TrEMBL record:
<feature type="domain" description="EB">
    <location>
        <begin position="155"/>
        <end position="216"/>
    </location>
</feature>
<dbReference type="Pfam" id="PF01683">
    <property type="entry name" value="EB"/>
</dbReference>
<dbReference type="InterPro" id="IPR006149">
    <property type="entry name" value="EB_dom"/>
</dbReference>
<keyword id="KW-0732">Signal</keyword>
<feature type="signal peptide">
    <location>
        <begin position="1"/>
        <end position="25"/>
    </location>
</feature>
<protein>
    <recommendedName>
        <fullName>EB domain-containing protein</fullName>
    </recommendedName>
</protein>
């Protein structure tokens, strides 16, 4: 009885260990699979690392993932039953079948098809673009300038498929083209549709698109309309060679040398006294803001501003008002405009030789000045007398 109980205990302990080990093994394996599923010819240390689902195993003597016995590499990531491999039911080569040959089952092409050189597919004579091929010679019936690239019949380098033919591709604008043998083609445009066209013997952008950095970009003609500088160009046909718009911050705006006025981009003229034409130009300095106007055909300061060294400064006509010497002038008609006033310490005030009296800047009495001078003259003697006394 005791022996039986002991045996049961032993069995239970053994079961417990086994389950624990299994769980550990499973979790280790799954985590390894999650991080590493190695492909053909990748380096490996043990079997769990190679992708078993794709018939790969680790050849410990070479340290590389190889196809398990009876399977062949089918591209870089997996192994399968290639043409010529012994099979029991399934073949992995495209258009192949497991056929009995003598006393063995072997993967062979379906009736009438040719085996590819690498044994991974079977194919017939290509007749159309994109048909499967193995050699460029197979694509001759598709057309001239057709080659086999990545197992498909396509146009050769620098040629493009155009209405069932391979035509020479021209990807530059404004160069001569021949519509019958060449095609003006937008290689770099992200959009799939071609934006170039052979027009009157030259490569141009199709209607609605304009050339920009050698590319054709969609034309947006409306000031204020949203745009994307990658694919759009803000462009007004009326502007001709001197375009006024640009795509900036996602909106069609006036270029920097223009300023918006009355719904138009007008060219900034920033020299006072320069000629101006109000329909297309605006008198404006970026540093000043709107202080200028075009009057009588020349750029001038507006009436509440005054030209001081080519800058329009604001007239301030209130004694004691705050002012900024770089942007403002203290300007009093009754005091001869700027003759007796100035902007000092941020305040409009009388100049030094004047004093504010009856709301006007009045010249200081000369008597006061003389008294002052005499006083200073007397003080100046003191150090001299002191020096003489010491010398004695
Ligand atoms: C496997 O990789 C090694 C080293 O990169 C290389 O020399 C060898 O040719 C490769 N073998 C195959 C079958 O790709
Ligand atoms: C491992 O690779 C060596 C060298 O290519 C080969 O001789 C051997 O048969 C391979 N072993 C297995 C188990 O595939
Ligand atoms: C494709 O071209 C190769 C090389 O010329 C040739 O051996 C093969 O038979 C051709 N295949 C077909 C289907 O024409
Ligand atoms: C602009 O267009 C490009 C290409 O279509 C796109 O990748 C990009 O996200 C767009 N930019 C904005 C700001 O919408
Ligand atoms: C473009 O601007 C230049 C320089 O300002 C000028 O000489 C030329 O006449 C303008 N062209 C057109 C078409 O307005
Ligand atoms: C004075 O005006 C100039 C130009 O407008 C400005 O750059 C500066 O900051 C102003 N100074 C003061 C003290 O406001």
């Amino acid at each position: 009885m005791a022996a039986l109980r002991f045996a049961a205990l032993l069995l239970w302990a053994a079961l417990l260990t086994l389950t624990a080990r299994k769980a550990r093994g499973a979790s280790a394996t799954s985590s390894r699979f999650a991080t590493r599923e190695l492909s053909v010819n990748m380096t490996c240390k043990d079997n769990n690392e190679c992708n078993a689902k794709k018939h790969l195993t680790c050849n410990v003597s070479t340290g590389r993932c190889t196809c398990v016995n009876g399977y062949s590499p089918m591209g870089p990531t997996s192994c399968g039953k290639k043409l010529g491999d012994v099979c029991d039911r399934n073949c992995d080569a495209q258009n192949s079948r497991c056929k009995l040959v003598g006393d063995k089952y072997i993967c062979l092409c379906e009736e009438g098809l040719t085996a590819s050189t690498d044994g991974t597919f079977c194919y017939g004579k290509p007749l159309m673009f994109e048909d499967v091929c193995d050699h460029s010679a197979n694509c001759t019936d598709v057309g001239s300038r057709v080659i086999c690239k990545n197992f498909a019949c396509v146009c050769e380098e620098n040629y493009v498929r155009w209405h069932g033919q391979c035509l020479e591709k021209i990807d530059r604008l404004d160069v001569p083209c021949n519509e019958d043998t060449q095609v003006c083609f937008s290689e770099s445009e992200s959009d799939s549709a071609n934006k170039k066209i052979c027009l009157n013997g030259f490569c141009r952008c199709v209607s609605g698109f304009v050339p920009h950095d050698g590319m054709c970009k969609k034309k947006i003609s409306l000031l204020g309309a949203p745009c994307n500088a990658t694919t759009h160009v803000c462009h007004k046909d009326d502007d001709g060679a001197n375009q006024t718009l640009q795509c900036h911050n996602g909106i069609c705006q006036c270029k920097d040398i223009f300023l918006l006025e009355d719904g138009k981009c007008k060219k900034k003229i920033d020299v006072l006294g320069a000629k101006c034409s109000p329909g297309t130009e605006i008198c404006y300095a970026d540093s000043e803001g709107k202080r200028r106007q075009c009057r009588d055909g020349t750029c001038q300061c507006k009436s509440s501003f005054v030209n001081e060294n080519g800058i329009c400064k604001q007239k301030i006509s209130l004694m004691g008002a705050p002012c900024n010497a770089t942007a403002d002038v203290c300007y009093f008609k009754e005091d001869g405009n700027q003759q007796k006033t100035h902007c000092k310490d941020g305040v409009c005030q009388c100049k030094a030789e004047f004093a504010l009296t009856d709301k006007k800047c009045q010249k200081l009495k000369s008597g006061n000045n003389h008294a002052e001078a005499r006083f200073i003259g007397r003080i100046a003697w003191i150090p001299l007398i002191a020096v003489i006394s010491v010398m004695r």
